[in-house]
Amino acid sequence: MSEGRIDYLAAKFFQQACTPAEKEELARWIEQSDGDAALQQVLERVWADYEPVAQLTEEASSRIIGDILDRQHTVSVGAAVRPLHKLLRYAAAAVIFVAALAGGYALWKSGPAAPSAPAVVKAAKPEILPPGGNKATLTMADGSVITLDSTLNSTVITGNQVRIVKTDSGLVTYQQLGIQDAKPAYNTLTVPRGGQFRVVLADGTKVWLNAMSSLHYPVAFSNGARKVELSGEAYFEVAASSARPFLVTVNDMELTVLGTAFNVSAYPDEAFVHATLLSGKVVVKHHEVSLPLAKGCQAALNRRTGQLTNTPVNTDEAVAWKNGRFIFNAAPMKEIMRQLSRWYNIDVAYAGEVNEQFYAEIPRFANAAEALKILELTGKVHFRLEGQRVTVYP
């Protein structure tokens, strides 16, 4: 296919003007292309001449994804998967293009063709089982609980040498007004299943909390060490202070930080606690073992054996959730479903063992049915979606 023809089809796709035959032609080119670089070049050329993002409404995005994932127009593809990590950086329309078209048609590119099978996922309207959103509860030092939803935008709470402001963007900001008393007051921010939230602590440290996570922290900081406790998963951008180290306690592991960006994943139902360093310096301590982390490395604590290891990793995968994506790289199905269940607030059951490993990128703004359909196109797994319950079939 000529370069001009490819650009023409890609532009028509963004305009939602492709005929079924043109969509299949474009999908087949992606399936047969030399690799991720070829698709990236197409996106760059088309994006230079076409700018649809400002007009791309949420409703239009849903229509695009729903149209692309219509199995009437899918093509037969192989069983192996090609992750497209770099391509999801081209703004909203490119995200939809790559995650839905490339993800749905051509992520499974090499190897023998998977046998065709009827779709098991029940049809779902976009509003059914939507993705998670900004939701949390704030437990104050006196035990009172505040539900942080859209009805509490611009709320201001003052006390304990701090001013707390809740905005409409899923964010709570603490503004320290004075030195904390000898006996500090603590708040707890709790994010439920199907939620996410952000908080700026009194020292300026920024924290992103993933679904089913909580952070326990002082409302204002004294002159000593800054110490918080985490359950679940969070991404931190710590305000630098050489005189006041920032300490994160999670289970029986502690991280000492002096101004750093890092991610910690410590869900109770996971076998490992992971701490991934994106920039700066972190020392991870477990009992008597101290492990300095370098940029781009991940500490993994085996909950069963207590062993602490240090390994270079792809940091994009560790913080994909914060950046609006799921990235699965040789991930087992049960790990994938644990992540999806937290974000979509669904219960998962298994009708057999699925022993394959999966590679995929899925946008977190897709609804649950769309996410499951993308995984189904591997031919290695099928799902039945009934209300809040998903059954996994080999």
From TrEMBL:
Residues 325-392 form the Protein FecR C-terminal domain. GO terms for molecular function: sigma factor antagonist activity. Coiled coil: none annotated. It holds the Pfam family FecR. Residues 188-282 form the FecR protein domain. This is FecR family protein. It comes from Chitinophaga varians.
